[in-house]
Amino acid sequence: MSPQTLNSRPHRIEALIVGGSLGGLTTALALASAGLPSTVLERTAGRTQRGVAILVAGARLQRAIGTNAYRGVGRALGQAAISQYALPHAWWDVYSALRDAADAEPLITVVEKANVVEAGQDDASAWARTEDGATWTADVLFGADGYRSVVRRHVDGRRPNATYAGYVVWLGQSELPPAYHGRAGGPDFFSSGSDMLAVYPLVDSGERATRFGWGWFDASRNSLFRSMGAVSGTEVRRTPRTTDIPDDVYASMAAVGERKWAEPWRSGVISAFRDREVVATPITEYVPERVASGRVAVLGDAAHVQTPMTGAGFEEAVADAVAIVDAFDGAVSPEDALRQYELTRLADMRRRVLGGQSFSRSFARR
């Protein structure tokens, strides 16, 4: 008699997902498309707008989250835009579309203000403990909790931390000059001295580009981020708030931008610095050696952190979600499913991160 698979049993596998950003929401929607319920533990109480640009490959996303959820996401982001995979969307627009789809799905529960400080497992379940002392349990647990992942500490305690890549990217959005409205294309890259500027039109729900996102790659201010405690040794401790950065730094960046960059992008970049509407993001990298341990696994930036130069962060998280759901089809136990997920994804995860490191090592000043 052949072994009974998870999908053939009357008990539905339940999942805990630590982290309610893009990777966590995509995984929850993917599990729901397979009839598997999940609870998403999100440390914030309503995310605020952050991030800049996300490329959404419609066919891959539909494969991950299923047709029903994809319809809503397509309406929010513009069906033609994500089908063509031509222009990036603002991070906030993608997050909002996925969050709305998750909130509308009965098999998904999103719990906010649930700051997970520890994860583990026993023979019968996986668990997450929040800072208020509550313990959440499920059949499996997925860490989608970013580059400073708590869950990664359980999966691979020997290598718990991502590594500082040696530079920051200043991220902003600006109005696209009217002559460029609606134009497809990008990203474009411009070099000046030791710095690089990446520019990409952002498509809105009306499938037009009226704004552009940009990232200024800067390896000259490592001492600043170390002095404020954002970077310590080889580890990034946090992404600085705009209020952490002194006024004279914003003024200096605006002055440098005046000299380095050309129109039509220069004015928007300079204005963003003068208005303090820029996020300084220290870049981390993590090459995984393992992404699953028993009933616990990591995905997205918790599993494989790569330079934004690859432009593939969300695409890789979607691939993780697809592999996770596929692994449960035919698996005889949660542990078996997560072993299959690791076998399917680990080599590609490593390849993508290592490919980006060639840029980082040529660019960074540690």
From TrEMBL:
Q: Does the keyword Aminoacyl-tRNA synthetase apply?
A: no
InterPro entries hit by this protein: FAD-bd, FAD-dep_Monooxygenase_BioMet, FAD/NAD-bd_sf
In this chain the FAD-binding domain maps to 280-346
Known cofactor(s): FAD
**Annotated keywords:** FAD, Flavoprotein, Monooxygenase, Oxidoreductase
Gene Ontology MF: a single term: monooxygenase activity
Name of this protein: FAD-dependent monooxygenase
- Taxonomic lineage of the native organism: Bacteria, Bacillati, Actinomycetota, Actinomycetes, Kitasatosporales
